[in-house]
Automatic annotation (TrEMBL):
GO molecular function, one term: hydrolase activity
Domain Metallo-beta-lactamase: 97-285
Protein's recorded name: Glyoxylase-like metal-dependent hydrolase (Beta-lactamase superfamily II)
Organism of origin: Brevundimonas lenta
Signal sequence residues: 1-27
């Protein structure tokens, strides 16, 4: 989550983007899910389906931060501590999972984000998780990047070489422009450039996956809507970091966001739209495996996981 300078103004708000989705205005996703693809049982791998598409949540590790207003992006430490479940009772710290998403889209093997590559105190599990899911890194055909913070692009490189040598790397034009201007990522940018295919915000990136602008976090922060028949899932990147803090208090700003006003508006619109449409959400930093839905509760929202959180 290393920040780079603000290089572009936030674009259109999420509500306007999602208003263009093909789903009927009042239709909830009620169709029965297809059986999960066969993957060996493992606490770091969770297989499921999006309609007829095979998908796998891949654990990369955990970011663990003291609730001290320094390592944590939320400076209102007393309010964070008072929010039930926001701080782990065992160690008094904030825990955020890191789990890229694998999707088999026809003959494409798509990986959305690449984890931290061992940065930020994480465990660098992605490659092992990927192999447990039956995929060698050389088989990945497409990598979709939500944004260029270290816990999302850190796994692109390994020992100075491309970790996924045959993959085309898709990143939004505003985010790629920001990466190219950020000196600490210069070596990575040089290595990636031959494989990068920048796309315009809102583009159809693969046959079943469309980019969705989620403004505020970085100049070109992007979510991904994955669709198969009547089923759809929205990968939200870092629009919301915590399944408790970000969901229950979307108005709280954090220092990881490039544009706080846009980020707050995106969170609020995403929660409203997700709850009203009963959208299946993939929270890359929510408790593993990160699958669930937003529900209204009193005057706000809560996160309801599809499966129990795994260690």
């Amino acid at each position: 989550m290393t920040l780079y300078p603000r290089l572009a103004a936030a674009g259109l708000m999420l509500a306007a983007v999602l208003a263009g989705c093909s789903e009927p205005a009042q239709k909830a996703e009620t169709s029965a899910p297809a059986p999960a693809p066969a993957v060996a049982a493992n606490p770091d791998v969770h297989a499921f389906r999006i309609g007829q598409l095979e998908a796998v949540a891949l654990k990369d590790g955990d970011i663990v931060m003291p609730n001290d207003g320094k390592a944590s992006p939320w400076s209102n430490t007393e309010e964070v501590a008072a929010l039930a479940g926001a701080v782990d009772a065992a160690d008094g710290k904030i825990h955020l999972s890191v789990q890229p998403l694998l999707v088999r889209d026809g003959d494409r093997v798509v990986l959305i984000d690449t984890g931290a590559g061992g940065q930020m105190g994480t465990q660098n599990k992605l490659q092992a998780s990927l192999r447990t899911a039956g995929v060698d890194p050389a088989q990945v055909t497409d990598i979709l990047i939500s944004h260029a913070h270290g816990d999302h692009v850190g796994g692109l490189m390994a020992n100075g070489a491309l970790a996924f040598p045959n993959a085309v790397i898709h990143v939004s034009i505003p985010e790629w422009t920001a990466m190219q201007a950020y000196a600490p990522q210069a070596d990575m940018v040089r290595a990636l450039t031959p494989r990068v295919r920048p796309f315009a915000p809102g583009a159809q990136v693969t046959p079943s996956i469309r980019a969705v602008s989620l403004d505020g976090h970085t100049p070109g922060h992007t979510g991904y809507e994955i669709t198969s028949g009547d089923a759809r899932l929205l990968y939200i990147g870092d629009a919301l970091h915590s399944s408790i803090i970000s969901v229950q208090r979307p108005d709280w700003t954090n220092v990881w966001d490039d544009d706080n006003a846009a980020a707050v508006a995106t969170r609020q619109a995403l929660l409203e739209r997700g709850a009203s449409r009963n959208l299946l959400i993939y929270g890359v930093h929510f408790p593993f495996p990160g699958l669930g839905r937003f529900q209204r509760r009193d005057d706000g929202f809560i996160w309801v996981p599809e499966t129990p959180a795994q260690p």
